[in-house]
Every structure is written in structure tokens, then in C-alpha cells.
Write a structure and sequence with these properties.
single chain, alpha+beta, Beta-lactamase, 8-stranded antiparallel sheet, 3-stranded mixed sheet, 14 helices
Length: 400
């Protein structure tokens, strides 16, 4: 079957629309975001980032800033419409689907894992009959994070990652990897330890209840209604569809001069419901804005999403220990983050081998920023710190 070519008129209309869209991106007062641009520039010049972008949306309009390149080999510049891997920013997509199913009466957040996945969660102190869906979504289940399993981490870090970058996993395999390790704390609900395993289980429950793929449910319930044009959950694809920057990594080496590898092509099955998605700055803005404004969930489920828990545990001697990002509180896929100047922002974020992405804003979504850096560094030049610096450049008063 042949495909009809677009008419010249259609091409001209498309060109005009693109020109107008690009103009609107730069319509916001650029001088109001000079600190953000400086933070992007420093991330590249001093922080070892190949490329970093940010897009601000507020009452003045949209502003896009970039530094560095999308491809260190060709020097190609980064663009506003690029797709990139978003890591754990996939979790709020999974959480939203689960909460919509709760709103439809097809599950309760108080349902146990045993009810929907009988016999799967057991061993090493785990009991699927005491762990609820809510525990999975707010990381209070205590189930070990499969990504921290010593055997798997040895395969997915350092030069070994290059040999295993295309390995495929089923959700059941990921859960079993997590369960072969001791629990993070004794009883579900007694603490917060970030666990990708919990979100894999949540994705499996979605598929069990709906009889459809999680990717299909995200597409049907979120992507299409919001008009997201660059967001999808890959299956066994290892390449990113459409225009995208290259993704880079030191593969967890922390030395300042650690070798940097191109890790753009990789299996997404290692993250799936917990971190396998691809998106764009614009789509992250639209999705996060919809979450903050309550556009995707009824009031009861909206309250559930933003019921926050502290991100840490109480140790046996009574002291508090942070187990995630300092100064954060976590809901179901979303979190709040108190910046160093005391301003609190809400939104989503994630890391993956190849980059960090965040979309954060005021609670009413009237002022938001989305950012992506195409490297995951964990040493002195830490990609989390680079991302936080960009957020603070926008939300913290100059000089605070």
C-alpha cells in the first residue's frame, strides 16, 4: 500500500505552525531566566554534562534554555522537542493508572498484593498478604529494590553494563530478584525505602485487572487524553523513536576523570513500570501540570496521590535516617522537595543510566520547570546536584 504525499499547502501550514510554536517558546521574558541559563552553562562547563536543557512555563509564557550538545560526536545542539529516557519519572504514570482503577472501583489501595498476585510475594520476611497496593506506591512496603541486588548491580554497572545493555527481563524476573534479598525494614508501613520492585508489582496488578498491557493503559488513559506526542513505554525496543539526544554515563564510576560511554541504546525492560519510559520536556510539563491541577483523578484519588510520607526510616537507636533525597516527602509517584532557600516545589523526577529528568513546580502549577541532563554522574559532579541547581535557579530568589 502506498502512502499519499502531503500537499505543498499542508507543508506550508506545518512550517508556519512550527515557527509560531518556536516563537511562543521564546516569548517569555528571557531576562527573567538568566539564572537558569547560567546554571545550565555551569553544568556543562564545570559539571561534566554533555548537554542540559530546561523549559520554564509561567504566566509570561514559555522559555527554553540549553547548554552543551545533544551529540558529542557531531556537536548537534539540543532542541525543545527531543525525546529522552525519563527513568523513575515513569512511576507517576503507573501510579495514575492504578489510582484511576481505584476510582472505577476495580481495586482498592488497601487491597493486598496477595489478592491480585497470589503466591508471588513471599520469602525473606515478605508476605504478600500484609503488603498493600498503597505500600507499593509510596515505597513503604519494605520490599528490597531489585536494582540494588549485588549480582544484578555487578551486571548493570561498570564495563559489564556494555555486555548486558540489551538483556531483557520479565516483570516476574525483576520481582524475584528483589525478593531474594532481605527486607529493608520489618513491617510494611514502618518506613520508606525507595523500591522499584514495588512499582513492578503495581504494573503487574494493572495488567492482571485490565487484561491489557501497562503500555496500552498508559496510552489510553494518559497519553491520548493529554495529547502527549513524544511519550511512550517501550517494550523490547532498544532505540529511542524519533529525534533524541545521545545519552551518556560513567557507569557508576565516581572519579572526576572517569570514562564516559554512550549508553543511548539499551533495554527498557530493566525499568518497565518503575523507570522504562521515554518522554519530552513539553510532555512532562503537560503531564505534571495535569497531576498538580487534579485533571487526571477524582478528588479522593487526588488526595491519595498527594498524601505524603517522610522519605526515611527510624533506626533502632531512635535516630532518623534519610533513605532518599534529603528534604523530600513522597506521595504516590509524586513528591515535594524543599529547596535550600526554603521554597517547596512539587512534581516528578527520575534517573536512569544515561540521564536525570525532573518536572517540578508550584503546587498550583502556575510556575513550572522541566529539565533533563543527558548523563548520570554520582561523584563530585553529581547529576542530582546539577538538576537541583537548575531548579533553585528558577525558584530561589537571586542570592539566597
Amino acid at each position: 500500500m502506498t502512502r499519499a504525499l502531503p500537499s505543498m499547502t499542508g507543508l506550508l501550514i506545518t512550517a508556519v505552525a512550527l515557527t509560531q510554536a518556536l516563537a511562543s517558546v521564546s516569548a517569555a521574558d528571557a531576562s527573567a531566566h538568566t539564572q537558569v541559563q547560567k546554571a545550565l552553562d555551569r553544568a556543562v562547563a564545570d559539571g561534566g554534562a554533555p548537554g542540559m536543557v530546561a523549559e520554564v512555563r509561567d504566566r509570561r509564557g514559555r522559555w527554553f534554555g540549553s547548554a552543551g550538545v545533544a551529540d558529542t560526536r557531531t556537536g548537534r545542539k539540543r532542541q525543545p522537542h527531543e525525546r529522552f529516557r525519563i527513568g523513575s519519572a515513569a512511576k507517576p504514570f503507573t501510579a495514575t493508572v492504578v489510582l484511576q482503577l481505584a476510582a472505577e472501583g476495580r481495586l482498592s489501595l488497601d487491597d493486598t498484593v496477595q489478592k491480585w498476585l497470589p503466591g508471588l510475594v513471599k520469602g525473606n520476611g515478605n508476605d504478600g498478604g500484609t503488603i498493600t497496593i498503597r505500600h507499593l506506591l509510596n515505597h513503604t512496603s519494605g520490599i528490597f529494590n531489585y536494582g540494588n541486588d549485588k549480582e544484578e548491580f555487578a551486571k548493570l554497572s561498570g564495563p559489564a553494563w556494555l555486555e548486558h545493555r540489551y538483556d531483557t527481563y520479565t516483570p516476574e524476573q525483576l520481582v524475584k530478584i528483589g525478593l531474594r534479598n532481605p527486607r529493608s525494614f520489618e513491617a510494611p508501613g514502618d518506613g520508606f525505602v525507595y523500591s522499584n520492585t514495588g512499582y513492578i508489582l503495581a504494573g503487574m496488578i494493572v495488567e492482571k485487572i485490565t487484561g491489557r498491557t501497562l503500555a496500552g493503559e498508559i496510552q489510553r488513559r494518559i497519553v491520548r487524553p493529554l495529547g502527549l506526542t513524544g511519550t511512550y513505554l517501550p517494550g523490547r525496543e532498544t532505540k529511542i523513536r524519533g529525534p533524541h539526544p545521545r545519552h551518556y554515563s560513567t557507569l557508576f564510576a565516581t572519579e572526576a576523570d572517569a570514562k564516559v560511554y554512550d549508553v543511548t541504546d539499551q533495554s527498557a525492560t530493566t525499568g518497565w513500570a518503575a523507570g522504562g519510559m521515554v518522554s519530552t520536556l513539553g510532555d512532562l510539563h503537560r503531564f505534571t501540570g495535569a497531576l498538580l491541577r487534579g485533571k487526571l483523578l477524582p478528588p479522593a484519588q487526588q488526595r491519595e496521590m498527594f498524601t505524603l510520607v517522610k522519605t526515611g526510616i527510624r533506626t533502632p537507636d531512635g535516630t532518623w535516617r534519610d533513605t532518599w533525597i534529603s528534604d523530600t516527602m513522597y506521595g504516590t509517584g509524586v513528591f515535594s522537595w524543599e529547596l535550600s532557600c526554603g521554597v517547596k516545589v512539587w512534581g516528578i523526577g527520575g534517573a536512569i543510566t544515561g540521564g536525570f529528568s525532573f518536572a517540578m513546580g508550584s503546587r498550583d502549577a502556575e510556575r513550572m520547570i522541566a529539565t533533563n541532563v543527558t548523563i548520570d554522574r554520582y561523584g563530585r559532579h553529581n547529576s542530582l546536584d546539577l538538576s537541583k541547581t537548575v531548579l533553585e535557579a528558577e525558584f530561589c530568589p537571586s542570592g539566597s
